[in-house]
Specification:
It is a single chain. The protein starts with a helix and ends in a 19-residue tail after the last helix. The relative contact order is 0.11. It is globular. The chain has 13 helices and 58 strands. By secondary structure, the protein is mainly beta. Among the domains are: 239 residues, no CATH class; 219 residues, no CATH class. The chain has a 25-stranded parallel beta sheet that branches. A 12-stranded parallel beta sheet has the order 3-22-25-28-31-36-39-42-45-48-51-54.
Length: 756
């Protein structure tokens, strides 16, 4: 089969036709089916899967409230429907002072309208009980809790300042509009200054005012506008690295960290050269003051924004104000932003922070548009110890902080829209909390973060994020956010649809979590070294099950991420019954861990089906190998030593842990922690151009079970599945495939995605 695969890829069209006939005469591919080949071009993309599930809609119900809030209310009122409160704060106070004994619930009805909220906090005194939960819900229209300021379209006028017009292109002069924010009672404290964004910044190592909140954003009809930038799309590339600077690592040091770097003050910065066109562009700006850069100077996953320190036109050298944390290499990416001269494309904006003048190049007709600038730097809703609360049907938007932060138990967020948030959408930590039937859109970092459960005892948190529509996230911190960030112990991410984002759909850690029935597509759009579902670099965070997820059309635009990624020695993961389709990278990338179970997955049209390397072991037998983390005394070893992995609770839950050895003098022992031992890569169905299972290291074959996988050339894809043109990826004639994979089961596609 592998020989045929090679010929099929290399041969001429005529020979391919002959080969197809020979294969048809041969009669079987992979031992299970009778086939005829179809001709596929090299850019072939398998049809998208189709699911019968859809968004759950609520029937209209009549809500009888105990208290009412209205934009036409008054806090001097008693809070009835006819005499409602004006503010949510007053309603919370009224609930707090209500006797909850012998009540089966308290409902606060919030009339449709927009409520300006900087922050709203619920503490233990605001709790309900299991018998008397407290519900804050919308009625009679959409309820919007807005931490920003709406700007009416009529306040925007043509630019008349000649000094500004001189800096705009001819096209921009005709289209850019402006307004003075100070006329609405706003000042510099409201919109704030620019600070670096991105967790890989080094600004904390520099003296002065270098750290602060996320900058304000501008939204037009619910969509974020782009700060004026060059180029308008895509990235620039560094030409030559003149000086790497004093980063935490050097690109030439094989990832070795600099001792004491965290305490280094004002390290020498990075300098690189730019291309000729960019040099001309920079030289044309009236001023380089307040010009900023977005940079990823070595890894596409390690970005930050940084002020421009200096530019030398003659030498074409550019110096950011802060050093690149991991060094810098030629050809790495950056772009220039916060430049009024670059306000030259529809959908861009620029704020003159000194004078409060807001400039906008409208993306479409401005009349009737909703234009909002985010202002609040606080979390919109904080639940700190208040239990048995329900938030139903609210829209939370307009903050530079987080939408909702829940540190409590038995709190439900349902039917809510969390949008236009610069930080995280909803953050949960506790027990028995639920985020369900919500939509998350235009989130700056992570849409939903779930924690909870007890690491020592493995008591599950039983928090859930389910049936949510999650899209357009990680828009501010481009490489920092995920659709769902799942941690803790015994928490669940299920039946969500997640799409359209630069990074992972799901990042997870912790123990014994469950990721199931999610529909994931068009994510990891700006990264190679990631996965649609990703975890990494812990031996002890085991027991998570990933099952019955559809992961399709991952990456693009030259980026080739992976479907499911167990990175850097991660161990003890289970993945079965998943569809991974059209991944530009690998279906599975398993980075050197042990005790994995990967079975019954469909891996279709990925560049490589499964890659399983032995980096944790290799670094110990090849002293110069880059992966230092599994060495004795390094982070993976340290984390394992302080975890309760030897406790009765852990070894009962994870019996294979009792076999683990930390004897670094006996690297060849199969039970030695760094060896890829005890994994089962069994019973997967692979369809790809290569006609093989992938690239699996010799030591993995030695220490684990890699067997019983059924592999087919992509040219027979229509014969393997029921009807891919209709999006049906059920395997044909399952009894035949069970001759090779006795326990194979079709994936329950009717349960994937959001449920009706």
């Amino acid at each position: 089969m592998n020989v045929f695969s090679v010929f099929y890829l290399l041969a001429s069209k005529a020979f391919k036709l002959i080969l197809s006939l020979l294969l048809a005469i041969e009669g079987t591919i992979g031992g299970c089916f009778d086939f005829a080949f179809i001709m596929l071009d090299m850019d072939y993309v398998a049809p998208a899967p189709v699911f019968s599930t859809g968004y759950k809609t609520e029937d209209d119900v009549t809500v009888n409230g105990d208290f009412y809030v209205s934009t036409n209310g008054n806090d001097a009122n008693i809070g009835t429907k006819d005499a409602p409160f004006l503010t949510l704060e007053k309603a919370v106070e009224a609930v707090r002072n209500t006797d909850k004994t012998e009540k089966n619930g308290i409902t606060v009805c919030i009339e449709g309208g927009e409520y300006r909220v900087s922050s709203l906090t619920f503490t233990k005194e605001d709790s309900g009980t299991a018998e008397c939960p407290i519900t804050y819900c919308s009625y009679d229209g959409e309820v919007i809790l807005n931490g920003g300021k709406n700007l009416e379209p009529f306040v925007f006028n043509a630019v008349t300042d000649e000094s500004v017009l001189a800096r705009l292109s001819d096209d921009a002069k005709k289209n850019v509009l402006c307004t003075d924010l100070t006329k609405f009672g706003l000042n510099a404290d409201d919109w704030g200054k620019l600070y670096p964004v991105g967790k890989y910044g080094t600004q904390a190592n520099y003296d002065g005012d270098t750290e602060g909140p996320v900058p304000c954003n501008l939204y037009f009809n619910g969509n974020p506008l782009t700060t004026a930038r060059y180029p308008n799309d895509g990235f620039l590339n560094t030409v030559e690295i003149i000086r790497e600077g004093e980063g935490e690592e050097s690109s030439t040091s094989n990832h070795q960290k600099v001792d004491g770097w965290a305490d280094l003050r004002n390290p020498e910065t990075t300098i690189f050269t730019v291309d000729e066109d960019t040099a001309e562009r920079l030289n044309s700006y009236e001023s380089l003051e307040n010009v900023w850069l977005w940079t990823a100077l070595i890894y596409e996953w390690a970005d930050t924004t940084v002020p421009l320190k200096s530019f030398d036109y003659a030498a074409r050298t550019l110096e950011p104000a802060y050093v690149s944390k991991y060094g810098a290499v030629p050809g790495s990416t950056y772009y220039i932003f916060n430049v009024i001269e670059e306000l030259d494309a529809a959908g861009e904006w620029y704020l003159d922070r000194e004078n409060g003048i807001l400039y906008i190049y409208p993306p479409e007709e401005i009349d009737g548009a909703k234009i909002t600038i985010s202002l609040s730097t606080e979390d919109m809703i904080t639940v700190d110890g208040a239990e048995h609360l329900i938030f139903d049907g609210l829209t939370v938007s307009g903050t530079r902080g987080n939408g909702m932060v829940i540190k409590s138990n038995n709190v439900t967020v349902k039917n809510c829209l969390i949008s236009e948030i610069s930080g995280n959408g909803v953050m949960v930590d506790g027990y028995y909390n639920k985020v369900t039937d919500c939509e998350f859109a235009h989130i700056g970092a992570t849409a939903v973060e779930i924690r909870g459960g007890d690491f020592e005892t493995l008591t599950p948190g039983e928090n859930r994020v389910e049936n949510c529509l999650i899209h357009d996230f990680s828009e501010v911190s481009i490489t920092e956010g995920q659709g769902v960030n799942l941690g803790g112990v015994g928490n669940v991410c299920a039946h969500n649809e997640i799409y359209n984002a630069p990074q992972q759909a799901i990042w997870y850690g912790g123990n014994s979590n469950l990721i199931e029935y999610n529909n994931i597509h068009h994510v990891a759009l700006l990264s190679h070294d990631t996965g649609a579902i990703y975890t990494g670099r812990r031996w002890d965070e085991v027991g998570t099950v990933i099952r019955y997820n559809a992961i399709w059309n991952i990456g693009g635009n030259g980026y080739n991420p992976h479907g499911i990624y167990f990175d850097d020695g991660t161990s003890g993961q289970t993945a079965y019954g998943n569809l991974i389709l059209n991944s530009g990278g690998y279906g599975f990338l398993i980075g050197g861990g042990r005790n994995h179970n990967v079975s019954n997955n469909l891996i279709i049209n990925c560049s490589t089906a499964i890659v399983y390397d032995d980096r944790s072991r290799r670094t110990l037998v090849e002293p110069d190998y880059w992966f230092e983390h599994s060495h004795e005394g390094y982070d993976m070893h340290r984390n394992l030593l302080v975890s309760p992995w030897k406790s009765e609770a852990w070894q009962t839950a994870y019996p294979y842990m009792s076999e683990w050895s930390l004897d670094y003098s006996d690297v060849e022992n199969p039970d030695f922690i760094a060896n890829p031992t005890g994994s089962k890569i069994v019973g997967n169905v692979v369809v790809n151009r290569k006609g093989n299972i992938g690239r699996i290291e010799e030591s993995v074959y030695k220490y684990s079970d890699i067997s019983g996988n059924d592999v087919y050339l992509l040219g027979v894809i229509n014969n393997v599945f029921e009807d891919i043109d209709a999006g049906n990826y059920e395997v044909k004639n399952i009894e035949k495939i069970r001759k090779t994979i006795p326990d194979f089961e079709n994936i329950p596609f009717d349960k994937i995605g959001r449920m009706n």
